[in-house]
Amino acid sequence: MNGMLILFVLRQGNRRYLMRTIAGIVVLGVLIDAVAPFVSPLGENDLLLCALWGGVITGVGLGLVFRTGGNTGGTDIIAQVISSKTSLPMGTACIIVDSGIIALSALTFSVEQALYAAVAMYICGRVIDAVVDGPRSERAAYIISDKHAEIANEILYALNRGCTELQARGVWSGNSRPVLFCVLGSKRDGTSQGDRLRD
Known about the structure:
This protein has 199 residues and is mainly alpha-helical. It is 61% helix and 11% strand. The chain contains eight helices and three strands, in the order H-H-H-H-H-H-E-H-E-E-H.
């Protein structure tokens, strides 16, 4: 499967990303086999403990890899493509991709084990986002609209946030128009500021 995914990466034309992908696949495979004999399983008889600590440790490791622009092959490649094409955080993309695999695993193993795997995957995804994006998540918005004055007023007084007006010029049209730049926190007063701004 990694071979097929490497061919997909090769078609993207990014040689540096290709080399990082191959290095991640090789290093992960070698180190798992090299370290496994010396590491005793955490909570060997407690699947919930395995899921919790497995999710945390895996999330930290993958988060550090993703933060440098690398990956460990497999579904990591698919998750990175989804994350780059959408606004989804990397951890959330991993959860979405691996959820399909976990659902299929229930047919081979058991529903109980699949549920434990889902717990581990959810924790792993949240930890990945915390490592890649940091503990605080904020978004920057560039707003281009003919109603920039009204929008700026709503940002200032409805959201109680600051914003900056930039002067921009369309390359194709050559027309000048203002652009609003605003940094939004992920949550405030229990409501997403991005949702309130869209409203």
